[in-house]
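Lab notebook, bench 4. Continuing the backlog of folding jobs that were queued last week. Each job is logged with the same field layout so the records can be merged later without manual cleanup. Today's entry covers Membrane protein, a 221-residue chain. Filled in by technician R.K.

JOB TYPE: sequence-to-structure
TARGET: Membrane protein
LENGTH: 221
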Amino acid sequence: MGSAKKSSSQARQARIAEMRRAEQARERRGRLLTIGVSAVVVAGLVVGGVLLVRSGSDDPGGTASDGKGAGTFVTGEDGVRTWKGTLSRNHVTKDVTYPMKPPVGGDHDQVWMNCDGDVYDKALDDKNAVHALEHGAVWVTYTDQAPKADVDALAAKVEKTPYSLMSPYQGQRDPIMLSAWGHQRTVTGADDPAVDAFFEKYVQGEQTPEPGAACTGGRAK
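JOB STATUS: finished
OUTPUT FIELD FOLLOWS
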Protein backbone atom coordinates (compact mmCIF):
# COMPACT_ATOMS: atom_id res chain seq x y z
CA MET A 1 0.00 0.00 0.00
CA GLY A 2 2.81 2.42 0.98
CA SER A 3 4.71 1.64 -2.21
CA ALA A 4 1.66 2.30 -4.36
CA LYS A 5 1.01 5.63 -2.63
CA LYS A 6 4.64 6.65 -3.09
CA SER A 7 4.51 5.69 -6.76
CA SER A 8 1.30 7.70 -7.24
CA SER A 9 2.84 10.71 -5.53
CA GLN A 10 5.98 10.49 -7.66
CA ALA A 11 3.88 10.26 -10.82
CA ARG A 12 1.86 13.31 -9.81
CA GLN A 13 5.03 15.29 -9.03
CA ALA A 14 6.50 14.29 -12.39
CA ARG A 15 3.32 15.41 -14.15
CA ILE A 16 3.35 18.76 -12.35
CA ALA A 17 7.04 19.24 -13.20
CA GLU A 18 6.29 18.57 -16.86
CA MET A 19 3.42 21.08 -16.74
CA ARG A 20 5.73 23.69 -15.24
CA ARG A 21 8.28 23.10 -18.01
CA ALA A 22 5.52 23.51 -20.59
CA GLU A 23 4.35 26.69 -18.88
CA GLN A 24 7.88 28.12 -18.92
CA ALA A 25 8.13 27.30 -22.63
CA ARG A 26 4.85 29.13 -23.26
CA GLU A 27 6.17 32.15 -21.36
CA ARG A 28 9.35 32.19 -23.47
CA ARG A 29 7.29 32.03 -26.65
CA GLY A 30 5.11 34.82 -25.29
CA ARG A 31 8.12 37.08 -24.76
CA LEU A 32 9.35 36.43 -28.29
CA LEU A 33 5.95 37.37 -29.67
CA THR A 34 5.68 40.59 -27.65
CA ILE A 35 7.28 42.83 -30.26
CA GLY A 36 5.09 41.49 -33.05
CA VAL A 37 1.95 41.72 -30.95
CA SER A 38 2.81 45.30 -29.97
CA ALA A 39 3.11 46.25 -33.63
CA VAL A 40 -0.27 44.72 -34.36
CA VAL A 41 -1.81 46.61 -31.46
CA VAL A 42 -0.41 49.92 -32.71
CA ALA A 43 -1.74 49.26 -36.18
CA GLY A 44 -5.08 48.23 -34.76
CA LEU A 45 -5.34 51.44 -32.77
CA VAL A 46 -4.80 53.43 -35.94
CA VAL A 47 -7.45 51.67 -38.02
CA GLY A 48 -9.95 50.56 -35.39
CA GLY A 49 -8.54 49.83 -31.91
CA VAL A 50 -11.98 49.59 -30.43
CA LEU A 51 -12.20 46.00 -31.68
CA LEU A 52 -9.03 45.08 -29.81
CA VAL A 53 -10.30 46.59 -26.58
CA ARG A 54 -13.61 44.73 -26.89
CA SER A 55 -11.81 41.41 -27.43
CA GLY A 56 -10.06 41.64 -24.04
CA SER A 57 -12.93 40.03 -22.14
CA ASP A 58 -15.20 37.05 -22.58
CA ASP A 59 -18.00 39.20 -21.17
CA PRO A 60 -17.79 42.73 -22.66
CA GLY A 61 -20.96 43.80 -20.88
CA GLY A 62 -19.64 42.75 -17.48
CA THR A 63 -22.70 40.71 -16.57
CA ALA A 64 -21.95 38.71 -13.42
CA SER A 65 -24.09 35.60 -13.81
CA ASP A 66 -22.58 32.78 -11.75
CA GLY A 67 -25.37 30.22 -12.04
CA LYS A 68 -25.80 30.18 -8.27
CA GLY A 69 -29.49 29.37 -8.40
CA ALA A 70 -29.03 25.60 -8.54
CA GLY A 71 -26.53 23.69 -6.46
CA THR A 72 -25.56 22.50 -2.99
CA PHE A 73 -22.68 20.89 -1.15
CA VAL A 74 -22.76 17.14 -0.48
CA THR A 75 -20.31 15.84 2.13
CA GLY A 76 -18.52 12.58 1.37
CA GLU A 77 -17.20 9.96 3.80
CA ASP A 78 -13.75 11.56 3.58
CA GLY A 79 -15.14 14.88 4.83
CA VAL A 80 -14.78 16.61 1.48
CA ARG A 81 -17.78 18.71 0.48
CA THR A 82 -18.50 18.44 -3.25
CA TRP A 83 -20.61 21.04 -5.05
CA LYS A 84 -23.52 19.39 -6.82
CA GLY A 85 -24.69 21.83 -9.42
CA THR A 86 -23.48 23.94 -12.30
CA LEU A 87 -20.33 26.02 -11.83
CA SER A 88 -20.24 28.47 -14.72
CA ARG A 89 -16.90 29.60 -16.12
CA ASN A 90 -17.52 32.96 -17.78
CA HIS A 91 -15.01 35.81 -17.55
CA VAL A 92 -16.70 38.85 -16.02
CA THR A 93 -15.73 42.38 -15.08
CA LYS A 94 -18.26 43.06 -12.34
CA ASP A 95 -18.47 41.60 -8.84
CA VAL A 96 -19.79 38.07 -8.46
CA THR A 97 -21.88 36.92 -5.50
CA TYR A 98 -20.81 33.34 -4.85
CA PRO A 99 -23.10 30.87 -3.03
CA MET A 100 -20.25 29.60 -0.85
CA LYS A 101 -17.31 31.09 1.08
CA PRO A 102 -14.63 30.65 -0.03
CA PRO A 103 -15.97 30.04 -3.54
CA VAL A 104 -15.10 26.78 -5.31
CA GLY A 105 -16.05 27.86 -8.82
CA GLY A 106 -18.30 30.03 -10.92
CA ASP A 107 -17.81 33.10 -13.06
CA HIS A 108 -14.49 34.82 -12.46
CA ASP A 109 -12.04 37.49 -13.54
CA GLN A 110 -10.12 36.90 -16.76
CA VAL A 111 -6.83 37.15 -14.79
CA TRP A 112 -5.96 34.33 -12.40
CA MET A 113 -4.24 34.76 -9.04
CA ASN A 114 -0.67 33.53 -9.16
CA CYS A 115 -0.71 30.06 -7.60
CA ASP A 116 2.81 28.70 -7.98
CA GLY A 117 3.19 28.14 -4.24
CA ASP A 118 2.19 31.75 -3.51
CA VAL A 119 1.39 32.79 0.07
CA TYR A 120 -0.49 36.06 0.50
CA ASP A 121 -0.83 37.95 3.78
CA LYS A 122 -3.91 39.89 2.68
CA ALA A 123 -7.34 38.80 1.46
CA LEU A 124 -7.66 38.16 -2.27
CA ASP A 125 -10.34 39.08 -4.75
CA ASP A 126 -12.51 35.96 -4.99
CA LYS A 127 -12.79 36.31 -8.78
CA ASN A 128 -9.02 35.98 -9.27
CA ALA A 129 -8.70 33.09 -6.82
CA VAL A 130 -11.53 31.19 -8.53
CA HIS A 131 -9.66 31.47 -11.82
CA ALA A 132 -6.65 29.85 -10.09
CA LEU A 133 -8.89 26.98 -9.01
CA GLU A 134 -9.96 26.58 -12.62
CA HIS A 135 -6.28 26.00 -13.43
CA GLY A 136 -6.10 23.15 -10.91
CA ALA A 137 -4.83 24.95 -7.82
CA VAL A 138 -5.64 24.19 -4.18
CA TRP A 139 -6.45 27.31 -2.16
CA VAL A 140 -5.67 27.28 1.58
CA THR A 141 -7.63 29.88 3.55
CA TYR A 142 -7.70 30.78 7.24
CA THR A 143 -9.29 33.20 9.69
CA ASP A 144 -7.74 35.07 12.60
CA GLN A 145 -8.91 32.15 14.79
CA ALA A 146 -6.36 29.81 13.20
CA PRO A 147 -3.29 29.19 15.43
CA LYS A 148 -0.18 30.95 14.12
CA ALA A 149 1.83 27.71 14.25
CA ASP A 150 -0.67 26.06 11.89
CA VAL A 151 -0.71 29.05 9.56
CA ASP A 152 3.10 29.03 9.39
CA ALA A 153 3.26 25.28 8.78
CA LEU A 154 0.63 25.43 6.03
CA ALA A 155 2.43 28.37 4.42
CA ALA A 156 5.62 26.30 4.30
CA LYS A 157 3.72 23.48 2.59
CA VAL A 158 2.15 25.80 0.04
CA GLU A 159 5.47 27.46 -0.78
CA LYS A 160 6.91 24.15 -1.91
CA THR A 161 3.80 23.02 -3.81
CA PRO A 162 3.22 24.17 -7.40
CA TYR A 163 -0.45 24.86 -8.16
CA SER A 164 -1.33 26.04 -4.67
CA LEU A 165 -1.93 29.38 -2.95
CA MET A 166 -2.83 30.62 0.51
CA SER A 167 -4.49 33.70 1.96
CA PRO A 168 -6.56 34.92 4.93
CA TYR A 169 -10.34 34.73 4.52
CA GLN A 170 -12.44 36.14 7.35
CA GLY A 171 -15.85 35.23 5.92
CA GLN A 172 -15.49 31.44 6.03
CA ARG A 173 -17.23 29.20 8.54
CA ASP A 174 -14.13 27.45 10.00
CA PRO A 175 -10.61 28.62 10.94
CA ILE A 176 -8.79 26.59 8.24
CA MET A 177 -10.29 25.43 4.96
CA LEU A 178 -9.00 23.91 1.71
CA SER A 179 -10.67 24.55 -1.63
CA ALA A 180 -10.34 23.21 -5.16
CA TRP A 181 -12.64 23.59 -8.16
CA GLY A 182 -15.95 22.13 -6.99
CA HIS A 183 -14.54 20.74 -3.72
CA GLN A 184 -13.88 21.99 -0.21
CA ARG A 185 -13.16 20.75 3.28
CA THR A 186 -12.32 21.93 6.78
CA VAL A 187 -9.14 20.72 8.50
CA THR A 188 -8.26 20.87 12.19
CA GLY A 189 -4.69 22.05 11.69
CA ALA A 190 -1.52 21.69 9.67
CA ASP A 191 -0.91 18.17 10.99
CA ASP A 192 -4.39 16.94 10.05
CA PRO A 193 -3.85 13.97 7.65
CA ALA A 194 -6.65 15.40 5.53
CA VAL A 195 -4.32 18.20 4.40
CA ASP A 196 -1.95 15.88 2.55
CA ALA A 197 -4.86 13.80 1.25
CA PHE A 198 -6.58 16.88 -0.19
CA PHE A 199 -3.41 18.17 -1.84
CA GLU A 200 -2.64 14.73 -3.25
CA LYS A 201 -6.07 14.38 -4.82
CA TYR A 202 -6.87 17.91 -5.96
CA VAL A 203 -3.60 19.64 -6.96
CA GLN A 204 -4.00 19.34 -10.74
CA GLY A 205 -6.57 16.65 -9.99
CA GLU A 206 -9.29 15.20 -12.16
CA GLN A 207 -11.65 18.04 -11.20
CA THR A 208 -9.44 20.61 -13.00
CA PRO A 209 -11.33 22.33 -15.84
CA GLU A 210 -8.08 23.57 -17.45
CA PRO A 211 -5.28 21.14 -16.56
CA GLY A 212 -1.79 22.48 -17.17
CA ALA A 213 -2.91 26.11 -17.49
CA ALA A 214 -0.52 28.69 -16.07
CA CYS A 215 -0.20 29.48 -12.38
CA THR A 216 2.28 32.29 -13.01
CA GLY A 217 1.97 35.42 -15.10
CA GLY A 218 -1.34 36.33 -13.50
CA ARG A 219 -2.11 38.69 -10.65
CA ALA A 220 0.27 39.06 -7.74
CA LYS A 221 -0.50 40.92 -4.54
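OBSERVATION: The two ends are 41 Å apart (CA to CA).
SIGNED: R.K.
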